[in-house]
Write a structure and sequence with these properties.
Shape: globular
GO molecular function: cytochrome-c peroxidase activity; electron transfer activity; heme binding; metal ion binding
Strand order of the largest sheet: 1-6-5
Number of strands: 18
Protein name: Cytochrome c domain-containing protein
Pfam families: RoxA-like_Cyt-c
Strand content: 5-15%
Structural class: alpha+beta
Organism: Xanthobacter autotrophicus
Keywords: Heme, Iron, Metal-binding
Largest sheet: 3 strands, mixed
Distance between the termini: 35 Å
Length: about 575
């Protein structure tokens, strides 16, 4: 991810301590739940060993030296950066203790790279689980949602990491404690290496700044990915664009079976999608000497294929009646009828639609998710317009995008640049490992039209948002692609009745409205300071649209909304064994 150079201003001591004091109140409410032991794990089809593999299998992300992160202190404290309370403040999930694959108790989704690295050893980065694992709380119980939407604050994490590194360089006592923890490192290498690491993290933090903060549970993934490839890796600073269209982390169950993935549907095969994702989350790319045959990245395609296979076994989380309360069967039955009338046309279920067997080699069928034209759904368009309206200089990738539309100055759609980069890097990796024929097709998730050697493409036009299946959605708020609606009840309400401002970051589930507790009056003043205030009046944050049924007919009554909510608690997912 390439950022514009600029001054980097350290946070004031008073401001930082104020934030820490505010988060103390939030943390105190959680401590009773978290100190009770590990979370309750729902039956989502994973064994304990598979779950741990998903949490701690590297995808090729390299953020900073592993030993540096373990030795680093918090910016204005002598407590370690990886202290569980500090990790939780930023919305990530601390480990429940050391394990075979995680002997150092890294947070969930933080992973040591399996390669040896340089003089300081392996790097540490993030894997899928960092953003796609969640905990919810209700009635004094903590419940794990594997494949769920994390409430992590990416920008806050980058800010604190950058300040922690800078403060370590500036404070002699802090640096001495840091260096003392690096028992195997050459003392002469520590400061120069730390300076280089701090400069890189400072650059990444600056590149992630936006005038409207992401807050909890959101990231402009495409913005970061396109900057990483089109600006950073290509060495074309003019290709940088502010990543200012954050979207919610999507839940993962059923995604391996879906015909299109990503909120805008542009990814047509899992390997290309996942490799591109790595490049946006601290993966590195080399376009060596402009020779396409030598283009490479730090992504680990074999691990990406394994991660995708594990997610294919992941089921939607079942509603745990013991912890969250019994479902009203009569109300759910009525909700099923309303859902079929008003929701299933786009979202499918309980009778899901699949692609024709003739469309894919071997007769494999994929979940036929609906791509809903922005002109129809009328939700916030910024994510779509940022992608479709973005052009870039192709640099050394020019020959690979020769057939793409060109502007007069030689720029091409940024999506074409990304596709070219991901395709050539993927093919080079497969070729280097001798993976051809059916093995190659398997790595691409069997996404091939009959007789074709090129993987199936993603959604192209018109600009649309994906309406995926809703099984398990009860555990995944806030809602809409940009996280602008706090509860399902609010989403089913008329646009003018939806909250204009609400808080994000609390994990307490509202079992009646389906979403997290978010209204201002639910928290003390101190607690509110430790949460993120979501303002739907700001750019990219609109909560309008998704006004169904059509305004020309009767709107859903409050009883209708609660009936649909009751049904969503028990809605079953599709049978995805067809592929």
């Amino acid at each position: 991810m390439l950022g514009r150079k600029g001054l980097f201003v350290l946070a004031g001591v008073a401001g930082f301590l104020g934030l820490a004091a505010a988060t103390d109140a939030i943390m105190s409410r959680r401590q009773a739940v978290e100190q009770a032991g590990p979370p309750k794990v729902l039956d989502q089809g994973w064994s304990d060993s598979l779950r741990e593999q998903f949490y701690y299998t590297s995808q090729g992300s390299q953020l900073l030296p592993y030993v540096f992160l373990r030795a680093l202190e918090q910016p204005l404290s002598d407590k370690l950066f990886l202290d569980p309370a500090h990790i939780a403040e930023m919305g990530f999930l601390p480990a429940d203790g050391p394990s075979q694959l995680n002997p150092d108790s890294l947070p969930i989704g933080f992973v040591k790279d399996p390669r040896p690295g340089g003089a300081l050893g392996p790097s540490v980065g993030m894997t899928c689980a960092a953003c796609h694992t969640a905990d919810i709380e209700a009635n004094g119980v903590r419940i794990r949602i594997d494949g769920g939407a994390a409430l992590a604050d990416y920008q806050l994490f980058m800010k604190r990491l950058s300040r922690a590194l800078d403060n370590t360089l500036a404070d002699p006592a802090k640096f001495q404690r840091f260096a003392a923890r690096l028992v195997a490192a050459d003392p002469k290498q520590i400061r120069p290496a730390l300076e280089a690491t701090a400069a890189e993290i400072r650059r990444l933090e600056a590149a992630s700044w936006t005038p409207v903060p992401y807050g909890r549970g959101r990231l402009d993934a495409f913005g970061h990915i396109l900057n990483a490839v089109a600006a950073d890796a290509l060495g074309e600073p003019a290709n940088f664009r502010m990543p200012d269209a954050p979207v919610s982390y999507p839940f993962l169950w059923t995604t391996p079976a879906q015909r299109y993935v990503q909120w805008n549907g542009v990814a047509g095969n899992p390997l290309g999608r996942n490799l591109g994702e790595v490049l946006g989350v601290f993966g590195h790319t080399s376009f060596a000497n402009g020779n396409p045959g030598a283009f490479a990245s730090t992504a680990l395609p074999g691990n990406l294929v394994a991660l995708e296979a594990w997610v294919a076994d992941l089921k939607p989380p079942p509603w745990p009646e013991k912890e969250l309360g019994k479902v009203d069967a009569a109300k759910a039955k009525r909700g099923a009828e309303l859902f079929k009338t008003h929701c299933s046309g786009c979202h499918g279920g309980p009778e899901y639609r699949f692609t024709p067997a003739a469309d894919t080699e071997g007769g494999r069928q994929w979940l036929a998710v609906s791509m809903v034209d922005i002109a129809k759904v009328k939700t916030d368009p910024k994510m779509l317009t940022n992608f479709t309206g973005r052009f870039a200089k192709p640099g050394v990738l020019g020959p690979l995008v020769a057939n793409a539309p060109h502007l007069s100055d030689g720029q091409v759609p940024a999506g074409a640049v990304l596709l070219a980069a991901v395709t050539v890097i993927t093919e080079n990796s497969l070729r280097a490992q001798g993976i051809t024929g059916d093995a190659r097709k398997q790595w691409y998730g069997w996404r091939f039209a009959p007789g074709s050697t090129a993987p199936q493409s993603g959604w192209l036009t018109p600009a649309s948002y994906k309406a995926g299946p809703l099984a398990g959605v009860w555990a995944t708020g806030p809602f809409l692609h940009n996280g602008s609606v706090p509860t399902v009840y609010d989403l089913l309400s008329p646009e003018d009745e939806r909250p204009a401002r609400f808080y994000v970051g609390a994990k307490q589930l509202d079992t009646q409205k389906l979403g997290f507790v978010s209204s201002p009056d639910a928290f003390t003043e101190k607690e509110r300071e430790g949460l993120f205030l979501f303002d739907t009046n700001l750019a990219g944050n609109s909560n309008r649209g998704h006004a169904f049924p059509d305004p020309s007919v009767a709107k859903l009554s409050p009883d209708d909304r609660t009936a649909i909510i009751e049904y969503l608690k028990i809605l079953e997912g599709p049978d995805v064994r067809r592929h």
